[in-house]
Amino acid sequence: MAAHNPLEQFRIEELLPLQAGGYNISFTNSSLFMVIAITLITLFMVLGARKKAMVPGRWQSMVEMSYEMVANMLRDTVGSGGRQYFPFIFTLFSFVLICNLLGLMPYSFTVTSHIAITFALALFIFIAVTLIGFFKHGLHYLQLFAPKGASPILLVLLVPIEIISYCIRPITLSIRLFANMMAGHTMLKVFAGFVVALGAAGIFPLAFMVALTGLETIVALLQAYIFSILTCIYLNDALHMH
């Protein structure tokens, strides 16, 4: 029954058991696919940009298109002041995107389907953005929680709301990515089970599954973009306080 359980694909398995100071730091299937994702990103960028031709080929064009897309996203949301954060945003977008797409391959593992991974990313972003805000504005950064022009009576209500909405950013950011990846891959597994169970009569579930796989590919791209652009918006708040 476990083999047909659609949630079985999300199980963490230890590939190389390791212990350090009483903590389990084993190398798992999740760790393996994160390493694969980083390796693929590195190869894509290094091999795609090695020729630097004036008339780019397909590979170089894909590298340049991905570069321009993230650069434009950062420029449109943060402005020229966010240019120094481009390496992080580009790395973040590439990592989430490749992890999402790897999860669509048969017998693979979806790293971003685990809340531990997405929350770790979101918490790092939250802490980094908050530190950037305080380093740039000092204690004036706290004015982010008090909208300008609001009356003292409204501030009594608005300040707690603003603080709560700010503090739950890592939760909402992580759950959005985790929930979409887990739900989509669970549906794929369920319909794959229908195709196998119905045999020759499973042509309609198979056709639907092909369409669903295409939709999940779009969702994988979209979720990587949303995760990155929300990071840019948080960064904009830290730099410009609006």
Describe the structure.
This protein is mainly α. The chain has one domain. Helices cover 68% and strands 4% of the residues. The chain is built from seven helices and four strands; from the N terminus they run E-E-E-E-H-H-H-H-H-H-H. The chain has helices spanning 29-48, 58-78, 86-102, 115-137, 152-167, 169-198, 203-240, and strands spanning 14-16, 19-20, 23-24, 27-28. The strands form two sheets. It has a two-stranded antiparallel sheet with strand order 1-4. Strands 2-3 form a two-stranded antiparallel sheet. Strand 2 (19-20) and strand 3 (23-24) form a beta hairpin. Helix 1 (29-48) crosses helix 2, helix 2 crosses helix 7 (203-240) and helix 4 (115-137) runs antiparallel to helix 6 (169-198). 22% of the residues are buried.
In short:
This protein has 242 residues and is mainly α. The protein has one domain (2-240).
Low-confidence stretches: none
End-to-end Cα distance, whole Å, is 53 Å
Number of strands: 4
**Radius of gyration using CA atoms only:** 21 Å
Which secondary-structure class do the elements indicate? Answer: mainly alpha
Number of helices: 7
For the biggest β-sheet, the strand order reads 1-4
Total domain modules: 1
How big a fraction of the residues is strand? under 5%
Compressed to H and E, one letter per element, the order equals EEEEHHHHHHH
Helix content: 55-70%
Cα shape = globular
**Average pLDDT for all residues:** 85
Sheet bearing the most strands, described? 2 strands, antiparallel
